[in-house]
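User: I'm curious whether this sequence folds into something compact or stays loose and floppy. Could you predict its structure so I can see for myself?
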Amino acid sequence: MIKFVHTGDIHLGLQFNKVSFDRDTAITRRVELWSTFQRLVEYSKENHMDFLFIAGDLFESRYFTLGDMKRVRDMFQDAMNVNIIISAGNHDFINETSLYKKIEWSSNVFIFKGNGIESVDFPELDTVVYGYSWDRIEIRENHLFDNYVFNSHRTNKILVIHGDIGSNTNYLPLNINVLNNLKLDYIALGHIHKPEIFGSKMAYCGSLEPLDFGEIGERGFIQGYIDNNGTKIEFLPFSKRKFLSKSISINENMSFQNIYDLIKDIDGNKELDYFRIELNGYIQHDIDLESLLTTVKTDFYYIEIIDNTSPDYDLKALENDHKDSIIGEFINEMKNKGLDNPTVKKALYYGLDALLKGRVDS
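Assistant: Here's the prediction. I'll summarize afterward.
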């Protein structure tokens, strides 16, 4: 039997330039990518894994330094009992200037070099591992499997590759039927940040840590083993934090305290996770949402409030104040359509927002 951990899309060195959180939060998150990856290497070592497969995008070439690469080298050297196999992806692709080539790696590390599909043999484990490393940032066509024959006599045959299942992609298109027909014991996929398991012999591990609010839910790695009964794999959550997106419906009868309590009591680990909360519905026009956000921030590690509410206006007062203007006529017309209809009420409030804002801005 062989045991393995499958990870990828770690993105060490990521600067988080396109996220919504501030610089200090980005710096902290960058440190956490490192610490979670180190935890995973230690996990592989402590649990006597035969292999740690890294399916691309270990780091960000644009921001990574030689010092960073030496840090990775030392991490791997401390796990000499684990065979560490790397297939580079589009963010850490291998060319002549690649940092992968600037380091003398310990004997337990094998990095595919970018010359088509390659293989590395482990006779003591009766296993061969195939892989492919990118040599450029985009690959629009895939002919890797056209003439390559996976003809090893080893019992266990594994492929580690970074690519996108689908035909319309610039990131090494992979055909799932072609992959299935390779008759391998496991295919470790990278590139898609959401974990996905295809049967018992193929999976995207997903990103080890979620990188932004586009990566909602659990993140971690794939753990598996291969024995005489076949391949068994499972996804194990492992990230330090999660990104969570929630929606709350409010109405015009809710006070500042009511809304605060709804947000404060929302499900999730408020001490660890990133929350983005959308407020929908109608809100009393004199409730200060900025003050609400400032107040509720103390209950969360990180929170964003997306305000999709419409202010609840005092229609009687507005009618009296604007009875001889377009605003008064608009209110009267919408009332005649029936404010019990949510669509009519929403149209009324949108219209009032525009009309009243126009008066203020003019």
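Summary: The chain is about 25% helix and 25% strand. The helical segments are 23-46, 66-77, 176-180, 256-264, 289-296, 315-321, 326-337, 342-361.
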